[in-house]
Amino acid sequence: MGTDNLFHKRKAKTQRDFKRRISKFAPYDRVLIVCEGSKTEPHYFEELRNYYSLETANVRVSGECGSDPVSVVEHGKALNLAEQQKGDGYDRVYCVFDKDKHANYQQALDIVTAAKPKNIFFSVQSVPCFEYWLLLHFIYTTAPFSAVGNTSAGDAVLAELKQYWPNYVKASKNTFSYLLNQLDYAKANAARSLLEASNNSTDNPSTHIHILVDYLQNIKKKTAQ
Q1: C-alpha span between 35 and 210 (Å, rounded)
Q2: Beta-bridge partner residues of 93
Q3: How many CA atoms lie within 13 A of 35 on its CB side?
Q4: pLDDT in tens, 122-180
Q5: What are the domain boundaries of the chain?
Q6: b/e map 99-133, b = 16+ CB within 10 Å
Q7: Helical H runs in the chain?
Q8: pTM for this one?
Q9: What does the alpha-carbon distance between residue 193 and residue 142 come to, in Å, rounded to a whole number?
Q10: CA separation for the pair 170, 209 (Å, rounded)
């Protein structure tokens, strides 16, 4: 009898804990976005999250992992594990990083591909850099960007971007809101350039940012279906 009571008490506690965890989150996916930069990319996705009224408990943005692609992925894995141990693991973990001059860029992609369980971890890479995504809000271009002397490929993208947005500064806020009216155009350009890069067996230039943006735009609709 005593054993039965203990079993029922434990079962009731488990059910209460589960209901308590569920009540902390809105009824759509929990997402972790881990960014290479400490400001530019986190600011962008935080602004996007706020614009679409996504709960911070459901969509967490982290940029506290340095600029190394592998450190981005490992940071994402560590944060997800910590949540899993609390019973609140993420439905998806997006690792946002650039190729630019990073020697272990491919290693980071390989780690994401091998990560388990499947369909939790996703790489959101930009080649050469995040600013290519911003540039696509103004023009469609697939001209490759290359390092010349002390100028990196990323610097070349930045110089091109400043032709259309002279006041752009890395780490600035309000980038998402400033470019909002051109967002659909940028998404179409990004999808088009990614397909062209694949058809030409290259990745320069390309970006996957539009895929994450589209997912976040529709995350609530997914639950309603």
Answers
A1: 15
A2: 32, 121
A3: 19
A4: 999 999 999 999 999 999 999 999 999 999 999 999 999 999 999 999 998 999 999 99
A5: 2-224
A6: bbebeebeebbebbeebeeeebbbbbbbbbbbbbb
A7: 2-23, 40-51, 69-85, 105-114, 130-135, 153-164, 175-179, 183-199, 209-217, 219-224
A8: 0.89
A9: 6
A10: 17
Dihedral of CA 164/96/22/57: which sign? negative
User: How far is residue 114 CA from its own chain's centroid?
Assistant: 18
Quick one: tokens of 111?
């780690």
Amino acid occupying residue 81 = L
Q: Which two tokens stand for residue 126?
A: 């930009």
Q: Which amino acid is at 175?
A: T
51 token code pair: 């614009």
Token reading at 187: 């998404």
Pairing of strands 121-127, 59-62: unpaired
The rounded distance, in Å, linking the Cα atoms of 25 and 219 is 13
Which amino acid is present at 107? Q
d(Cα 28, Cα 188) in Å, to the nearest integer?
26
Q: What is the mean pLDDT of the chain?
A: 90
